[in-house]
């Protein structure tokens, strides 16, 4: 019990930025679900079981249109395909996680990935427990925000346009934090360049997958030069 308490206390401070972002973005999602006629219970289940912010937003359209399972499947794959790259990079990290492994895989999202890869638990804290609580806390924040939004949406009507920018702001904060803590900025610069080039070539609707592939290809090609200082997910 003491071991778990120490891991939780170590994990919580690293997730505070996620708490802020997920709460507001979750509220926006809950309000959106409410505006489409879905009660708090459905919002809670979606966030608890699906736990994929962007896919959940996209799913609102699928839920309110003619049922097309193939289209819904393809949409989900396109929106969340980036998780394939996260999963591959975490194979060694989660390899010996034991009973926590399945939940760590399920709960892996953009923000959790960033924290697990960049944050180092204090000496004496079990790393797998630390990762588990980071994942659990992030999951809880999203569910909490969604439920709050569902409750508010049932009683209050207001314009939520632009509220989803919270997630973009969160990514910027995490990126800047990693930039300040790492000496080698080459991987970050290469990632930005690849993403910008793909945005210009493919447009905002289709650039994510090509950008991911380009980043993986470039970093793989330069791995020997970058490996000495590139932070690894432990």
TrEMBL record:
It comes from the Bacteria. One of its GO terms (cellular component) is plasma membrane. It is a multi-pass membrane protein. One of its GO terms (biological process) is L-valine transmembrane transport. The chain crosses the membrane at residues 12-32, 39-60, 66-88, 139-156, 163-179, 185-203. It is found in: Cell membrane. InterPro entries: Brnchd-chn_aa_trnsp_permease. Keywords: Cell membrane, Membrane, Transmembrane, Transmembrane helix, Transport. The keyword Magnesium does not apply. Belongs to the AzlC family. This is 4-azaleucine resistance probable transporter AzlC. It comes from Sporobacter termitidis DSM 10068.
């Amino acid at each position: 019990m003491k071991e778990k308490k120490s891991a939780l206390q170590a994990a919580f401070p690293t997730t505070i930025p996620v708490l802020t972002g997920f709460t507001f973005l979750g509220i926006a999602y809950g309000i959106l679900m409410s505006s489409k006629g879905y009660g708090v219970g459905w919002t809670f289940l979606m966030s608890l079981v699906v736990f994929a912010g962007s896919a959940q937003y996209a799913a609102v359209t699928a839920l309110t249109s003619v049922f097309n399972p193939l289209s819904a499947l393809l949409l989900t794959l396109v929106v969340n395909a980036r998780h394939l790259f996260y999963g591959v990079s975490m194979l060694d990290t989660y390899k010996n996680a034991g009973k926590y492994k399945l939940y760590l895989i399920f709960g892996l999202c953009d923000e959790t990935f960033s924290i697990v890869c960049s944050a180092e638990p204090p000496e004496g804290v079990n790393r797998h427990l630390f990762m588990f609580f980071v994942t659990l806390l992030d999951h809880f924040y999203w569910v909490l925000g969604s439920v709050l939004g569902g409750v508010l949406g049932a009683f209050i009507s207001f314009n939520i346009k632009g509220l989803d920018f919270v997630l973009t702001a969160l990514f910027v904060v995490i990126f800047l934090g990693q930039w300040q803590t790492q000496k080698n900025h080459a991987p970050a610069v290469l990632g930005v360049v690849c993403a910008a080039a793909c945005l210009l070539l493919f447009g905002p609707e289709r650039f994510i997958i090509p950008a991911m592939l380009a980043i993986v290809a470039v970093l793989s090609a330069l791995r020997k030069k970058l490996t000495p200082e590139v932070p690894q997910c432990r």
